[in-house]
């Protein structure tokens, strides 16, 4: 605890003396971050810096509204399904996220509208098979794209010649 400022002494000299004496005692020697640059130096000011710092320190993610969190989970599930090793693993991942989506559509979640439909398990498995052919399986050439639809003649084509 610091003592009171003596009368007649200026604030600056009193504070400077206290800092100098504390430095001589070694009070500042083992502070965390000593010798390291200041974090986020040169970045624009963020009002929620302390919340983000706490979340990083606790290894947490920023809390999202329910619908946005489910969308993020769905994206992560599709990414993990594409990295899955077996077809059964892909089916399990997609089935699980589909159950979560179905539960979310039955109850009201906070946030913007969900606008997320359950994934077609067979379609996801088909895409996975194309990216991960089984060893020894013959590689079939990709199907040619369907021909473009025929152009429909405009009933007003006679107007083009009138210009």
From TrEMBL:
<dbReference type="InterPro" id="IPR018961">
    <property type="entry name" value="DnaJ_homolog_subfam-C_membr-28"/>
</dbReference>
<dbReference type="Pfam" id="PF09350">
    <property type="entry name" value="DJC28_CD"/>
</dbReference>
<feature type="domain" description="DnaJ homologue subfamily C member 28 conserved">
    <location>
        <begin position="14"/>
        <end position="79"/>
    </location>
</feature>
<protein>
    <submittedName>
        <fullName>DUF1992 domain-containing protein</fullName>
    </submittedName>
</protein>
<feature type="compositionally biased region" description="Pro residues">
    <location>
        <begin position="135"/>
        <end position="149"/>
    </location>
</feature>
<feature type="compositionally biased region" description="Basic residues">
    <location>
        <begin position="150"/>
        <end position="163"/>
    </location>
</feature>
<feature type="region of interest" description="Disordered">
    <location>
        <begin position="127"/>
        <end position="163"/>
    </location>
</feature>
